[in-house]
Amino acid sequence: MKTLIVCFFLYASSVAIAQNCKYKINEQDKFTGKLTKLTKSEKVIGTFYTTGEFSVQKIDEEYAFIFNYSLSSYSKFDPYSIKKGAPLILLLENGETITLNSADDINGEKKTTIGLPPVYSCLLTNVSYPVTKLQLELFAKSKVKSTRFYRTESNGKEDFIDNEIKKNNQDDIQNLVRCVL
Questions:
Q1: pLDDT one-digit tens code per residue, 10-29
Q2: Dist CA 48 CA 71 (whole Å)
Q3: Coil, strand or helix at 44
Q4: How far apart are CA 41 and CA 36, in angstroms?
Q5: How far is it, in rounded angstroms, from Cα 13 to Cα 9?
Q6: Which of 8, 25, 142, 156 fits as disulfide partner to 38, beta carbons 3.0 to 4.6 Å?
Q7: How far is CA 127 from CA 26, 68, 94, 130, 134, in A?
Q8: What is the pTM of this model?
Q9: Nearby residues of 73 by Cβ (< 8 Å), 6 or more positions away
Q10: Which CA distances in Å does 46 have to 23, 72, 163?
């Protein structure tokens, strides 16, 4: 009887997790037969000057984190870019760090919002960071506490931004990871 109860709770918890999954894409490609999943983005970084949205992609047995990042300022600045191979370092609550590298060169899109004063923004969209299934399993076990996001300024200087992830956003990242495992 105890075994039956334990099995029921394990099943119920896996169903509860699956019910939190929201996908932008969840289908089998009719030409290749590969299963493709892309979770809907979750806002995981939100400060006065930065916003970061995060989703997880699975194509067959290949995985990636997809990141959309917005940087804003009241001072005019040239857009940033992400160079192929630029690191994204994720600090887990268990103290481990995992470094992922961007798959492509991404040029930021400049946007100006008219106002007093005007707000200048740089949008970096669809930045893909390939991740292994083993790394995803680590993310499923230990939440992401902090990120270090590397970027390149228009003058070629590389720098980074550190962001602490709020507790509820840590749960969101972990749920997104579980949605593709």
A1: 444 444 444 589 999 999 99
A2: 9
A3: strand
A4: 16
A5: 6
A6: 25
A7: 20, 6, 26, 10, 21
A8: 0.83
A9: 49, 119, 120, 121
A10: 22, 12, 9
